[in-house]
Amino acid sequence: MNKDKKIIYTLSIAAFAVLLVIFSVTARNSAIITAITMTIITPAVSILIKKRSSLSINKKEVMLLTTIVAALYVVLMLVAGLSFVSYKNPYFVNTERLLTLIIPSVVIIITSEIIRYVLLNQKNKLANILSWLICVLAEILIFSGISEFENFNHFMDLVGMTLFPAITANVYYHYVSKRFGALPNISFRLICTLYVYFIPVYSEIPSALHACIKTLLPLVILALTSALFEKKKRNAIVKGKKASLISMVVAVVVVVSTAMLISCQFRFGAIVVATESMTGEINKGDMIIYERYDGQTIKEGQVIVFLQYENRIIHRVIKIEHIGNEVRYYTKGDANEEQDQGYITDADIVGLTDMKISYVGFPTLWLRELLEGGD
After folding, report:
1. How far is it, in rounded angstroms, from Cα 187 to Cα 227?
2. Are 288 and 244 contained in the same domain?
3. How many whole angstroms separate alpha carbon 136 and alpha carbon 170?
4. Cα Rg for the chain, rounded, in angstroms?
5. Burial status of residue 15 (CB atoms within 10 A of its CB: 0-12, 13-18, 19 or more)
6. pTM of the model
């Protein structure tokens, strides 16, 4: 291994390791700590790693395209927000947010794109992979570190709402940086990340919908940019890229659909069975797909999802009583000897079970046990 490669690998691995530590142990102000760290790392990468030439064609055109798409994304989010509850923006810029969120975000975006550009132009596969990991981690740290999440559900929110969008976004950023430089990415990311701090009205768009848009948008722009500016490619390469893109889109759709189900923001939701109280028809490790409860008729013998002490429970309705204007539902787990204590009302019901997928929830249960120390 020559000296240049040693420098590239040493700096890249060190940068990733430091960000991983920040991600793992930072409880607050992850954006500030990451910004300071990236400010130290970026000059070292820029000075110690030799620069190599990259393609310069269509830079202005791609810069214009990404800026326009970013502006359209902001408009889309504002228009989509009209369908939901709107109120005075609680994130509107002030001195504290300027210092703790906005400036650190700007620093992280600019420095990560400089690191990406330098490493990608080394034309080294390992450097490419490391730069992608560094940039994904840096983007996540704009919003949070893992220590900020108190339980498994918070961790899953991080995965669905932040990690998945960061993964697909950085696929697109890598493509653009390697061919057209760092500026288009910087422009796109600054607009899409910071607009929320400069609009007076905030709309409560469902997190799952927002994550879905953020996850799919980079793939759409990637396909558009490739179609407009990629030329002189052999048919075999084009076919290979189309196949890869199709595979990626399918994978992302599956992942986003799963995240949307787990988030329960739409008509259907999903829940993994974590106990053996319904063993027989529904077993531990099964995933239950349920339809959101909106006043549908419930009959005795129906399996429902309801809230009990902030936990979602899947049990069967064994008795229904009408007391005045109130409907009381008495429930029981099929494998339990006694019925559940007390009763529930319509306000407690989350959904009606629709179907189950056997065994697929075991990885989630294992991960929950790992994160929660087996409690």
Report:
1. 21
2. no
3. 6
4. 24
5. buried
6. 0.66
Place of tokens 């179609």: 227
Cα pseudo-dihedral 336, 338, 342, 343, rounded to 10: 60
Tell me the longest C-alpha to C-alpha distance in the chain: 83
CA 31, CA 29: separation in Å to the nearest integer? Answer: 5
Identify the residue whose tokens are 């008795």: 319
Of the candidates 260, 250, 109, the one whose C-alpha atom is nearest the C-alpha of residue 168 is 250
> Considering the chain, what is the average pLDDT of its residues?
80
Q: Which of 232, 263, 294 is the last residue of a domain?
A: 263
pLDDT digits (tens, 9 = 90+) for 159-204: 667 788 888 899 999 999 988 889 999 999 999 999 989 888 777 6
User: Do residue 311 and residue 366 come from a single domain?
Assistant: yes
- What's the burial of 24, exposed, middle or buried (CB within 10 Å: 0-12/13-18/19+)? exposed
Closest Cα to residue 188, out of 76, 66, 310, 15?
66
Distance of CA 307 to the CA centre of its chain: 26
**pLDDT number for residue 6:** 86
First to last CA, the chain: 47
Given the structure tokens 């502006």, which residue do they identify? 71
Q: Give buried/exposed letters for 305-344 (b at 16+ CB in 10 A, else e).
A: bbeeeeebbbbbbeeeeeeeeeeebbbbbeebeeebeebb
DSSP for 129-192 reads HHHHHHHHHHHHHHH--GGG--SHHHHHHHIIIIIHHHHHHHHHHHHHHHHH-SHHHHHHHHHH
Which domain CATH number covers 288?
2.10.109.10
CA-based nearest residue to 263, from 203, 312, 328: 312
